[in-house]
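#struct-pred
JK: can someone run the complex with copper (II) ion? inputs below
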Amino acid sequence: MPPRPVIDPPLKRNMNNRRQFFAGAAATMAGLGVARSALAALPEPIIQTSVDTAPPLVPNTGRPYNPVVTLNGWSLPWRMNNGVKEFHLVAEPVVREMSPGFKVNMWGYNGQSPGPTIEVVEGDRVRIFVTNKLPEHTTIHWHGQRLPNGMDGVGGLTQPHIPAGKTFVYEFEARRPGTFMYHPHADEMVQMAMGMMGFWVTHPKARHPHISEVDRDFCFLLNAFDVEPGSRTPKVNTMTDFNIWGWNSRIFPGIDTLNVRLNDRVRIRVGNLTMTNHPIHLHGHEFQVTGTDGGPTPTATRWYEVTTDVAVGQMRQIELIADEEGDWAFHCHKSHHTMNAMGHAVPTMIGVDHRGLVNKLQRVVPDYMVMGERGMADMGEMQMPLPDNTAPMMTGTGQFGPIEMGGMFSVFKVRKDQKPGDYKDPGPYPFPQGTVAHEWTGATPAAPRAATPPGQADATVVKPGHGQHH
Ligand SMILES: [Cu+2]
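RT: done, C-alpha coordinates with the ligand placed:
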Protein backbone atom coordinates (compact mmCIF):
# COMPACT_ATOMS: atom_id res chain seq x y z
CA MET A 1 0.00 0.00 0.00
CA PRO A 2 1.41 3.43 -0.85
CA PRO A 3 2.51 5.65 2.05
CA ARG A 4 -0.20 7.72 3.67
CA PRO A 5 -0.02 11.50 3.86
CA VAL A 6 1.27 13.16 6.99
CA ILE A 7 -1.38 13.14 9.67
CA ASP A 8 -1.18 15.12 12.87
CA PRO A 9 -1.41 13.23 16.18
CA PRO A 10 -5.09 13.97 17.01
CA LEU A 11 -6.05 12.62 13.61
CA LYS A 12 -4.07 9.47 14.18
CA ARG A 13 -5.78 8.95 17.47
CA ASN A 14 -9.17 9.35 15.87
CA MET A 15 -8.19 7.02 13.06
CA ASN A 16 -7.78 4.25 15.60
CA ASN A 17 -11.25 4.93 16.95
CA ARG A 18 -12.50 4.95 13.43
CA ARG A 19 -10.89 1.66 12.62
CA GLN A 20 -12.81 -0.03 15.41
CA PHE A 21 -15.94 1.89 14.56
CA PHE A 22 -15.77 0.97 10.93
CA ALA A 23 -15.13 -2.66 11.66
CA GLY A 24 -18.63 -2.59 13.13
CA ALA A 25 -19.98 -0.66 10.19
CA ALA A 26 -18.40 -3.09 7.75
CA ALA A 27 -20.18 -5.95 9.46
CA THR A 28 -23.47 -4.05 9.21
CA MET A 29 -22.93 -3.31 5.57
CA ALA A 30 -22.03 -6.91 4.88
CA GLY A 31 -25.38 -7.67 6.44
CA LEU A 32 -26.95 -5.32 3.92
CA GLY A 33 -25.47 -7.33 1.09
CA VAL A 34 -22.25 -5.45 0.30
CA ALA A 35 -19.57 -7.95 -0.66
CA ARG A 36 -16.58 -8.05 1.69
CA SER A 37 -14.24 -7.83 -1.29
CA ALA A 38 -15.92 -4.57 -2.31
CA LEU A 39 -15.49 -3.19 1.20
CA ALA A 40 -11.86 -4.18 1.20
CA ALA A 41 -11.37 -1.97 -1.85
CA LEU A 42 -12.61 1.11 0.00
CA PRO A 43 -10.03 3.44 1.48
CA GLU A 44 -10.38 3.48 5.23
CA PRO A 45 -12.49 6.49 6.21
CA ILE A 46 -10.76 8.97 8.46
CA ILE A 47 -12.66 10.79 11.16
CA GLN A 48 -11.74 13.99 12.95
CA THR A 49 -13.69 15.18 15.95
CA SER A 50 -11.46 18.01 17.19
CA VAL A 51 -12.83 21.52 16.60
CA ASP A 52 -9.31 22.97 16.44
CA THR A 53 -7.78 24.29 13.25
CA ALA A 54 -5.63 21.41 11.97
CA PRO A 55 -2.15 22.23 10.63
CA PRO A 56 -1.89 22.24 6.83
CA LEU A 57 -1.88 18.74 5.33
CA VAL A 58 1.45 18.65 3.49
CA PRO A 59 1.14 16.23 0.56
CA ASN A 60 3.67 13.42 0.34
CA THR A 61 1.99 11.52 -2.45
CA GLY A 62 0.75 12.89 -5.74
CA ARG A 63 1.90 16.24 -7.15
CA PRO A 64 3.17 18.88 -4.71
CA TYR A 65 1.14 21.94 -3.76
CA ASN A 66 1.00 24.59 -1.06
CA PRO A 67 -1.78 23.36 1.29
CA VAL A 68 -4.59 25.47 2.75
CA VAL A 69 -5.55 25.87 6.39
CA THR A 70 -9.24 25.28 7.14
CA LEU A 71 -10.47 27.46 9.98
CA ASN A 72 -11.59 25.13 12.81
CA GLY A 73 -11.36 22.31 10.30
CA TRP A 74 -9.04 19.93 8.50
CA SER A 75 -8.16 18.46 5.11
CA LEU A 76 -8.99 14.87 4.21
CA PRO A 77 -6.04 12.54 3.61
CA TRP A 78 -6.25 10.35 0.52
CA ARG A 79 -4.61 7.27 -0.86
CA MET A 80 -3.10 6.92 -4.33
CA ASN A 81 -4.42 3.95 -6.27
CA ASN A 82 -2.77 3.50 -9.69
CA GLY A 83 -2.44 7.23 -10.11
CA VAL A 84 -5.96 8.01 -8.88
CA LYS A 85 -6.47 10.04 -5.69
CA GLU A 86 -9.01 8.17 -3.58
CA PHE A 87 -10.98 9.83 -0.80
CA HIS A 88 -13.68 8.39 1.42
CA LEU A 89 -16.44 10.65 2.73
CA VAL A 90 -18.93 9.36 5.27
CA ALA A 91 -22.19 11.30 5.56
CA GLU A 92 -23.36 10.91 9.15
CA PRO A 93 -24.95 12.57 12.17
CA VAL A 94 -22.36 14.49 14.21
CA VAL A 95 -22.25 16.70 17.28
CA ARG A 96 -20.49 20.02 16.68
CA GLU A 97 -19.36 22.25 19.48
CA MET A 98 -20.15 25.69 17.99
CA SER A 99 -18.51 27.59 20.84
CA PRO A 100 -17.31 26.44 24.25
CA GLY A 101 -20.26 24.87 26.06
CA PHE A 102 -22.66 25.05 23.10
CA LYS A 103 -23.14 21.76 21.24
CA VAL A 104 -25.48 21.20 18.34
CA ASN A 105 -26.71 17.99 16.72
CA MET A 106 -25.85 18.27 13.05
CA TRP A 107 -25.35 16.16 9.99
CA GLY A 108 -21.92 16.29 8.42
CA TYR A 109 -19.08 14.23 7.03
CA ASN A 110 -16.36 12.19 8.75
CA GLY A 111 -17.16 13.36 12.26
CA GLN A 112 -17.65 17.06 11.58
CA SER A 113 -19.81 19.77 10.14
CA PRO A 114 -18.60 21.08 7.81
CA GLY A 115 -16.93 18.07 6.27
CA PRO A 116 -13.19 17.94 5.67
CA THR A 117 -11.62 20.12 2.99
CA ILE A 118 -10.62 18.18 -0.11
CA GLU A 119 -7.41 19.36 -1.75
CA VAL A 120 -6.32 18.17 -5.17
CA VAL A 121 -4.17 19.42 -8.03
CA GLU A 122 -5.41 20.56 -11.43
CA GLY A 123 -5.42 17.53 -13.71
CA ASP A 124 -5.69 15.01 -10.86
CA ARG A 125 -7.92 12.00 -11.44
CA VAL A 126 -10.10 11.91 -8.30
CA ARG A 127 -12.25 9.04 -6.99
CA ILE A 128 -14.50 9.76 -4.02
CA PHE A 129 -16.34 7.04 -2.15
CA VAL A 130 -19.41 8.35 -0.32
CA THR A 131 -20.87 6.16 2.39
CA ASN A 132 -24.30 7.23 3.60
CA LYS A 133 -24.80 6.70 7.33
CA LEU A 134 -27.67 9.20 7.53
CA PRO A 135 -31.21 8.01 8.25
CA GLU A 136 -32.27 9.11 4.73
CA HIS A 137 -30.86 9.17 1.21
CA THR A 138 -28.32 11.76 0.07
CA THR A 139 -26.00 12.72 -2.82
CA ILE A 140 -22.98 15.01 -3.17
CA HIS A 141 -22.87 17.84 -5.66
CA TRP A 142 -19.34 19.12 -6.45
CA HIS A 143 -20.25 22.81 -6.66
CA GLY A 144 -18.45 24.68 -9.44
CA GLN A 145 -16.55 21.77 -10.96
CA ARG A 146 -16.22 20.86 -14.63
CA LEU A 147 -17.09 17.16 -14.71
CA PRO A 148 -19.11 14.54 -16.58
CA ASN A 149 -22.82 15.24 -16.14
CA GLY A 150 -23.42 11.95 -14.35
CA MET A 151 -20.93 12.93 -11.61
CA ASP A 152 -22.67 16.21 -10.79
CA GLY A 153 -24.62 14.72 -7.88
CA VAL A 154 -28.13 16.01 -8.49
CA GLY A 155 -30.36 13.28 -7.05
CA GLY A 156 -33.05 12.20 -9.51
CA LEU A 157 -31.63 14.30 -12.36
CA THR A 158 -28.11 12.96 -12.87
CA GLN A 159 -28.01 9.91 -10.56
CA PRO A 160 -30.17 7.78 -8.30
CA HIS A 161 -30.00 8.90 -4.65
CA ILE A 162 -27.55 7.13 -2.36
CA PRO A 163 -29.84 5.11 -0.05
CA ALA A 164 -29.13 4.99 3.68
CA GLY A 165 -26.43 2.41 4.37
CA LYS A 166 -25.01 2.35 0.82
CA THR A 167 -21.74 3.55 -0.70
CA PHE A 168 -21.55 5.29 -4.07
CA VAL A 169 -18.45 6.30 -5.98
CA TYR A 170 -17.81 9.53 -7.90
CA GLU A 171 -14.90 9.86 -10.30
CA PHE A 172 -13.71 12.78 -12.39
CA GLU A 173 -10.70 14.85 -13.33
CA ALA A 174 -10.20 18.12 -11.43
CA ARG A 175 -10.08 20.15 -14.61
CA ARG A 176 -9.66 23.70 -13.45
CA PRO A 177 -7.83 25.23 -10.47
CA GLY A 178 -9.83 27.22 -7.97
CA THR A 179 -12.07 27.36 -4.93
CA PHE A 180 -15.05 25.01 -4.75
CA MET A 181 -17.56 23.55 -2.30
CA TYR A 182 -19.48 20.30 -1.94
CA HIS A 183 -22.95 19.71 -0.52
CA PRO A 184 -25.93 17.37 -0.96
CA HIS A 185 -28.34 17.86 -3.86
CA ALA A 186 -30.96 15.72 -2.09
CA ASP A 187 -33.47 16.95 0.50
CA GLU A 188 -31.31 20.05 0.38
CA MET A 189 -33.38 22.21 2.67
CA VAL A 190 -33.02 19.72 5.52
CA GLN A 191 -29.52 18.45 4.82
CA MET A 192 -27.90 21.86 4.41
CA ALA A 193 -29.82 23.31 7.37
CA MET A 194 -28.31 20.42 9.35
CA GLY A 195 -24.76 21.36 8.32
CA MET A 196 -23.87 19.16 5.34
CA MET A 197 -21.24 21.00 3.34
CA GLY A 198 -17.52 21.09 2.78
CA PHE A 199 -14.74 23.00 1.06
CA TRP A 200 -12.77 21.91 -1.99
CA VAL A 201 -9.57 23.48 -3.32
CA THR A 202 -7.98 22.56 -6.64
CA HIS A 203 -4.41 23.84 -6.67
CA PRO A 204 -2.76 24.84 -9.97
CA LYS A 205 -0.44 22.20 -11.45
CA ALA A 206 2.18 24.80 -12.42
CA ARG A 207 2.72 28.52 -12.09
CA HIS A 208 -0.50 30.16 -13.18
CA PRO A 209 -0.57 33.76 -14.48
CA HIS A 210 -3.52 34.66 -12.22
CA ILE A 211 -2.72 32.59 -9.13
CA SER A 212 -0.01 33.95 -6.87
CA GLU A 213 2.03 31.88 -4.51
CA VAL A 214 1.07 32.85 -0.98
CA ASP A 215 2.57 32.38 2.47
CA ARG A 216 -0.78 31.53 4.08
CA ASP A 217 -3.95 30.25 2.48
CA PHE A 218 -7.03 30.08 4.74
CA CYS A 219 -10.50 28.79 3.87
CA PHE A 220 -13.89 28.54 5.53
CA LEU A 221 -17.60 28.25 4.74
CA LEU A 222 -20.26 30.68 5.91
CA ASN A 223 -23.19 28.90 7.50
CA ALA A 224 -26.38 29.62 9.41
CA PHE A 225 -28.52 27.63 11.80
CA ASP A 226 -31.75 28.15 13.67
CA VAL A 227 -31.29 26.68 17.12
CA GLU A 228 -33.90 27.56 19.70
CA PRO A 229 -32.10 28.79 22.84
CA GLY A 230 -31.70 25.81 25.14
CA SER A 231 -32.23 23.17 22.42
CA ARG A 232 -29.63 21.13 20.56
CA THR A 233 -31.02 20.52 17.07
CA PRO A 234 -31.42 23.09 14.27
CA LYS A 235 -34.93 23.83 13.03
CA VAL A 236 -34.80 22.78 9.38
CA ASN A 237 -37.86 24.63 8.07
CA THR A 238 -36.44 28.10 8.74
CA MET A 239 -36.18 30.20 5.59
CA THR A 240 -34.80 33.53 6.74
CA ASP A 241 -34.95 33.83 10.49
CA PHE A 242 -31.69 32.12 11.44
CA ASN A 243 -30.18 32.95 14.82
CA ILE A 244 -26.75 31.32 14.66
CA TRP A 245 -24.31 32.75 12.10
CA GLY A 246 -21.17 30.67 11.79
CA TRP A 247 -17.88 30.21 10.04
CA ASN A 248 -17.34 26.48 9.61
CA SER A 249 -20.07 25.79 12.17
CA ARG A 250 -18.27 27.82 14.84
CA ILE A 251 -19.32 31.16 16.32
CA PHE A 252 -17.24 33.82 17.99
CA PRO A 253 -15.50 33.42 20.40
CA GLY A 254 -15.31 29.81 19.18
CA ILE A 255 -13.76 30.74 15.81
CA ASP A 256 -9.98 30.49 15.71
CA THR A 257 -8.00 33.62 14.88
CA LEU A 258 -6.15 33.93 11.55
CA ASN A 259 -2.51 34.25 12.60
CA VAL A 260 0.07 35.52 10.12
CA ARG A 261 3.59 36.89 9.94
CA LEU A 262 4.17 40.54 9.12
CA ASN A 263 4.43 41.04 5.33
CA ASP A 264 3.03 37.60 4.51
CA ARG A 265 1.00 37.38 1.33
CA VAL A 266 -2.28 35.93 2.58
CA ARG A 267 -5.16 34.37 0.68
CA ILE A 268 -8.53 33.80 2.34
CA ARG A 269 -11.17 31.71 0.56
CA VAL A 270 -14.80 32.03 1.64
CA GLY A 271 -17.82 30.06 0.42
CA ASN A 272 -21.43 30.92 1.20
CA LEU A 273 -23.96 28.13 1.72
CA THR A 274 -26.42 30.17 3.78
CA MET A 275 -29.71 31.72 2.60
CA THR A 276 -28.41 35.31 2.55
CA ASN A 277 -25.39 37.35 1.50
CA HIS A 278 -22.49 38.24 3.79
CA PRO A 279 -20.32 41.34 3.30
CA ILE A 280 -16.99 40.13 4.65
CA HIS A 281 -14.91 42.98 6.06
CA LEU A 282 -11.25 43.15 7.10
CA HIS A 283 -9.83 45.96 9.22
CA GLY A 284 -6.50 47.70 8.69
CA HIS A 285 -5.69 46.43 5.16
CA GLU A 286 -6.95 46.56 1.60
CA PHE A 287 -7.40 43.34 -0.34
CA GLN A 288 -8.20 42.26 -3.87
CA VAL A 289 -10.67 39.60 -4.96
CA THR A 290 -8.38 37.21 -6.84
CA GLY A 291 -10.89 34.46 -7.50
CA THR A 292 -14.60 33.78 -7.75
CA ASP A 293 -16.79 30.78 -8.46
CA GLY A 294 -15.50 30.80 -12.01
CA GLY A 295 -11.84 30.60 -11.07
CA PRO A 296 -8.96 33.06 -10.73
CA THR A 297 -9.80 36.61 -11.84
CA PRO A 298 -7.59 38.17 -14.53
CA THR A 299 -5.22 40.68 -12.91
CA ALA A 300 -6.58 43.63 -14.93
CA THR A 301 -10.07 43.12 -13.45
CA ARG A 302 -8.99 43.51 -9.82
CA TRP A 303 -9.38 46.52 -7.54
CA TYR A 304 -8.82 47.18 -3.86
CA GLU A 305 -11.59 46.82 -1.31
CA VAL A 306 -11.99 46.39 2.42
CA THR A 307 -15.34 44.58 2.24
CA THR A 308 -16.50 42.04 -0.30
CA ASP A 309 -20.00 40.66 -0.51
CA VAL A 310 -20.26 36.90 -0.78
CA ALA A 311 -23.68 36.13 -2.20
CA VAL A 312 -25.62 32.90 -1.74
CA GLY A 313 -23.95 29.98 -3.46
CA GLN A 314 -20.83 32.03 -4.23
CA MET A 315 -17.16 31.71 -3.43
CA ARG A 316 -14.71 34.56 -3.11
CA GLN A 317 -10.98 34.44 -2.57
CA ILE A 318 -9.28 37.58 -1.33
CA GLU A 319 -5.58 38.36 -1.16
CA LEU A 320 -3.53 40.92 0.70
CA ILE A 321 -0.12 41.72 2.07
CA ALA A 322 -0.38 41.68 5.87
CA ASP A 323 1.83 44.71 6.39
CA GLU A 324 0.21 46.26 9.47
CA GLU A 325 0.91 44.65 12.83
CA GLY A 326 -1.97 44.25 15.24
CA ASP A 327 -5.18 42.45 16.17
CA TRP A 328 -7.43 43.38 13.27
CA ALA A 329 -11.13 42.57 13.40
CA PHE A 330 -12.39 40.36 10.54
CA HIS A 331 -16.14 39.86 10.32
CA CYS A 332 -19.40 39.90 8.41
CA HIS A 333 -20.60 43.49 8.23
CA LYS A 334 -24.28 42.68 8.79
CA SER A 335 -24.49 43.62 12.44
CA HIS A 336 -27.01 40.91 13.27
CA HIS A 337 -24.57 38.32 11.97
CA THR A 338 -22.04 39.18 14.66
CA MET A 339 -24.56 38.26 17.34
CA ASN A 340 -25.50 34.90 18.74
CA ALA A 341 -28.99 33.61 19.53
CA MET A 342 -31.24 36.48 20.48
CA GLY A 343 -34.96 36.88 20.85
CA HIS A 344 -36.04 38.91 17.83
CA ALA A 345 -39.12 39.90 19.85
CA VAL A 346 -36.99 42.01 22.21
CA PRO A 347 -38.30 45.60 21.89
CA THR A 348 -35.90 48.51 21.50
CA MET A 349 -35.71 50.08 24.95
CA ILE A 350 -33.20 52.87 24.30
CA GLY A 351 -34.36 55.97 26.12
CA VAL A 352 -37.01 54.20 28.18
CA ASP A 353 -36.66 54.97 31.88
CA HIS A 354 -37.29 51.75 33.80
CA ARG A 355 -36.70 53.15 37.30
CA GLY A 356 -39.41 52.00 39.68
CA LEU A 357 -40.71 49.46 37.20
CA VAL A 358 -37.80 47.09 37.84
CA ASN A 359 -38.37 47.06 41.58
CA LYS A 360 -42.03 46.29 41.11
CA LEU A 361 -41.32 43.52 38.57
CA GLN A 362 -38.59 41.96 40.68
CA ARG A 363 -41.11 41.37 43.45
CA VAL A 364 -42.94 38.94 41.16
CA VAL A 365 -40.11 37.94 38.77
CA PRO A 366 -36.95 37.81 40.91
CA ASP A 367 -34.54 37.39 37.94
CA TYR A 368 -36.09 40.22 35.89
CA MET A 369 -33.46 42.41 34.25
CA VAL A 370 -33.85 45.44 32.07
CA MET A 371 -32.29 45.02 28.64
CA GLY A 372 -31.01 47.82 26.58
CA GLU A 373 -32.19 51.10 28.08
CA ARG A 374 -28.79 52.65 27.22
CA GLY A 375 -28.25 50.61 24.06
CA MET A 376 -27.31 46.94 24.13
CA ALA A 377 -23.63 47.23 25.06
CA ASP A 378 -24.49 46.14 28.59
CA MET A 379 -25.32 42.74 27.12
CA GLY A 380 -21.63 42.02 26.60
CA GLU A 381 -21.01 42.28 30.34
CA MET A 382 -24.29 40.98 31.63
CA GLN A 383 -24.23 37.66 33.44
CA MET A 384 -27.81 36.70 32.74
CA PRO A 385 -28.99 33.22 33.62
CA LEU A 386 -29.12 31.46 30.23
CA PRO A 387 -30.88 28.24 29.33
CA ASP A 388 -28.51 25.25 29.18
CA ASN A 389 -26.56 24.77 25.95
CA THR A 390 -26.87 28.35 24.70
CA ALA A 391 -24.20 30.76 23.57
CA PRO A 392 -24.46 34.21 25.13
CA MET A 393 -25.72 36.80 22.64
CA MET A 394 -22.51 38.82 22.53
CA THR A 395 -19.34 37.47 24.03
CA GLY A 396 -15.61 37.36 23.66
CA THR A 397 -13.26 39.45 25.72
CA GLY A 398 -10.29 41.40 24.48
CA GLN A 399 -7.47 42.92 26.51
CA PHE A 400 -9.62 46.03 27.07
CA GLY A 401 -12.91 44.32 27.94
CA PRO A 402 -15.93 42.72 26.28
CA ILE A 403 -15.78 42.78 22.46
CA GLU A 404 -19.59 42.73 22.18
CA MET A 405 -19.52 40.45 19.17
CA GLY A 406 -20.63 36.90 18.42
CA GLY A 407 -21.37 34.91 15.28
CA MET A 408 -19.31 35.68 12.18
CA PHE A 409 -16.36 37.42 13.83
CA SER A 410 -12.69 36.61 14.20
CA VAL A 411 -9.37 38.38 14.52
CA PHE A 412 -6.63 38.69 11.88
CA LYS A 413 -3.43 38.71 13.93
CA VAL A 414 -0.34 40.15 12.27
CA ARG A 415 2.95 39.78 14.15
CA LYS A 416 6.53 40.39 13.07
CA ASP A 417 7.80 37.51 15.20
CA GLN A 418 5.26 34.90 14.02
CA LYS A 419 7.38 32.10 12.54
CA PRO A 420 6.80 30.99 8.94
CA GLY A 421 4.42 28.02 9.04
CA ASP A 422 3.40 28.73 12.65
CA TYR A 423 -0.39 29.10 12.91
CA LYS A 424 -0.55 29.33 16.72
CA ASP A 425 -2.41 32.23 18.34
CA PRO A 426 0.31 34.68 19.43
CA GLY A 427 -1.96 36.12 22.16
CA PRO A 428 -3.13 39.72 22.50
CA TYR A 429 -1.29 42.37 20.51
CA PRO A 430 1.31 44.24 22.59
CA PHE A 431 0.40 47.79 21.59
CA PRO A 432 3.39 50.11 21.43
CA GLN A 433 3.26 52.71 24.19
CA GLY A 434 1.09 55.68 23.33
CA THR A 435 -0.66 54.14 20.29
CA VAL A 436 -4.03 53.30 21.86
CA ALA A 437 -7.00 55.68 21.92
CA HIS A 438 -7.38 56.92 25.47
CA GLU A 439 -9.32 59.31 27.62
CA TRP A 440 -8.53 62.97 27.10
CA THR A 441 -8.08 64.71 30.43
CA GLY A 442 -6.89 68.16 29.26
CA ALA A 443 -9.03 71.16 28.50
CA THR A 444 -11.72 70.47 25.87
CA PRO A 445 -11.49 72.95 23.00
CA ALA A 446 -14.75 74.57 21.96
CA ALA A 447 -16.26 72.69 19.00
CA PRO A 448 -16.09 74.94 15.96
CA ARG A 449 -19.42 75.48 14.22
CA ALA A 450 -20.10 76.76 10.74
CA ALA A 451 -21.09 80.41 10.94
CA THR A 452 -24.69 81.11 9.96
CA PRO A 453 -24.76 83.99 7.45
CA PRO A 454 -26.89 86.88 8.75
CA GLY A 455 -30.54 86.64 7.78
CA GLN A 456 -30.40 82.91 6.96
CA ALA A 457 -32.62 80.69 9.04
CA ASP A 458 -31.49 77.53 10.77
CA ALA A 459 -31.55 74.90 8.00
CA THR A 460 -33.24 72.34 10.21
CA VAL A 461 -36.34 74.49 10.68
CA VAL A 462 -38.76 74.32 7.80
CA LYS A 463 -40.88 77.45 7.74
CA PRO A 464 -44.50 77.09 6.76
CA GLY A 465 -44.83 77.66 3.06
CA HIS A 466 -41.17 76.90 2.35
CA GLY A 467 -39.32 73.79 1.30
CA GLN A 468 -42.38 71.85 0.18
CA HIS A 469 -42.94 73.31 -3.26
CA HIS A 470 -40.63 71.07 -5.29
CU1 LIG B 1 -23.40 37.95 7.43
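RT: quick notes.
The chain has four helices and 24 strands.
Confidence is low (pLDDT under 50) at residues 1-36, 343-348, 461-470.
JK: thanks, will look after standup
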